[in-house]
Design goal:
64% helix; five-stranded mixed beta sheet; mainly alpha; globular; 3 domains
Length: 715
Amino acid sequence: MLIETVLFAGGMLTTVLLGLAVVGGSYALADRLVPQGTSARLCGTGALSLWGLCALFWVLAPLGIFRTWVVLPLLGAFCLLAARSAPSGLGERLQRDRRRTASVFREAGWALIPLGLVVLVALAMTFRGLAAPPLAWDALTYHLVHAGRFIQDGGLLRHPAPDAWSYYEYFPPSGEILFAWSMLATRSAALVPGMGFAIFVLLLVGVYAAAREMGAPIRRAVLTATAVGSSPSLLSLVTSAYVDPLVGATLAIGALFLFRFFRTRAASDLALGAAALSVLASAKHPGVVFFGVFAAFAAFGIVGRGKSVRELARVALPALALSLVGAAHYARTWWETGNPFYPVSVSLLGFPGNDEFELLQSAKLFPGAVFPPPGELIARMLTGSAASGWPHRNLGPGAAVLAAMAALGSVRLARESRTRHVLFLLVVLGLNVAMLSSPRVAALRLQWWDVSGRYLAPALLAAALLAAGWRRPVIDVLLAAESVVSVVYAFPVGLGPLGWAQAGLVAALVLFVVLIARLGWALWGRLAASGVLLAVALMLAAGALHEIRRYARLPTWREAYSERTFDVHPLHPWAMTAYPLWEMLAEEERQKVAVTAGWDGIGHNWYLFPLFGDKLQHDVSYVPVTRSGAIKDYRDKAAVLEDLDLEAWYRRLAAGGIDLVVVLPPLDTPELAYISAHPERFRLVAAGVGGQALAFRIFGDDDSPRSSRTAGAGR
């Protein structure tokens, strides 16, 4: 265990170094590209950091070398080259930005109270997340599954499986790429909450900077950012590994640099906006629409310059080049499926989608469900919760106040000759609402209305920026009141007593590192000497965090099963019945695991990530049960039975060196029927709560375990 603790601590220190290299190099570039405006320069740093991490992944992934030993020297060299190529006085300008940031906090005055509440809630969630295993539904089914497999594979490999995974595999991945970076050196999800918090802070800075660019004074810009960040639909997702805060952050930064481009006509502003929007475009399919809106407004701005073709190309080409990162996913998807937007169908272009995905999104998998009247749906999204005792995780009542203020602010901004700004934000808002209102995504309003507010992050952002344009002093009071009410609705009740204890322990570790850092600086006053002491403190704190996570893992899962602790909302108890299997695999030596699960009505019941183990050491895959080897959705039982050949399935298990077969609920799978009929080939080694999840070890004909380690298969 000592060796594992030391390796984890080393991985955590390596992650910190990687982060410093990325942010440091990006700041040096942003210093050249954004010579004026501290908040804009910080947003430029964020845009370049996100874009650079995604771009480097797409370079390394096809080669299978997304590995720590490859990226560490590359990012170190990038940081050094960016710093050396920066104009002289970079350190002085960094200190200037630090002083300017401090002055912003002073000028914000009482606006720091609601902002502080938002940050404290986000920090509490982050500290708990650092000490606990992931607990968000979509993170366990696909967000972190993607990220973990990127690390295991060193890049992008296909992992086909039935039902929801048939379309999970082609969801836009930039969010998962960023979370994979936070997992790379430690080979665990321990630092995923840290990446989530960093993205959330970037969201706040992006909204602040965009509001300032639209003429808002400092205090109002701070309150505008607070109003967006306090929304339960975003604040509750800080540690979830969901991509909606990333959508908000990249859209805010893209809007900022588009607005700057309206004023400066600088190629650098357009390029930085394109960098942010390219990350957004490959985070969620609607991001393509918002990228198109950005491109259209930018194109009008470019053409309106009245310059030569050469001059226009000089402005546009850098932005086009940076946009290629957003196109990489769609090119790969087009190559593999024939539809760049798969699983979404685009009938106008003749691109077929995934049938099960279309049925799910359109609510056709929920026969007999009745849509609430529009007024009732809006009321639910503002104050409702999915079940008694569940927290509100939607827009919150403050969204209604923002909408009213946005209407007034848009009129005022248009009178101030900011018509293009207003039009851009109104188009974003209108398109976002229209997309969520489409019959093609009826399930988001019918089945998942309680969390559908996160799909309106662009509209929320646009409304807040428009509201900031209302110049009456009362706007500050309304924004502050809206933020406080939203924080109350977003309060992390899901932490529970165990979660608050975990947060307290991590807060103590953070305080220890901060005190050691200050002590080192006070004693030596030199970066090198104090840096060594800080590195030692980080290693000690990381080792302690590793042990906290080990001892807190099983109690956290037990509490989650009882719905006494959770992240976004309680996980379904029937899915959490598998936690004894997760615990068995957490620290087990490397295993090859074949997993299956019955059809639950929507196909979102494959909680795969906990099966990977604490160090992502297990290979988790699906093995086809068909004679032909084709993968059939378990939703269509007739199609599965028509091609069923379980002896062929067993031979594939043996050929693949599979150690364990895990059956997740519901248990009505053909695999379990075969296992039950052949006790000489399978031995039960673990069972979930009430026998609702099962793990079997495979035995050969000589009654010995068919282990990939002993057989040498794949090792």
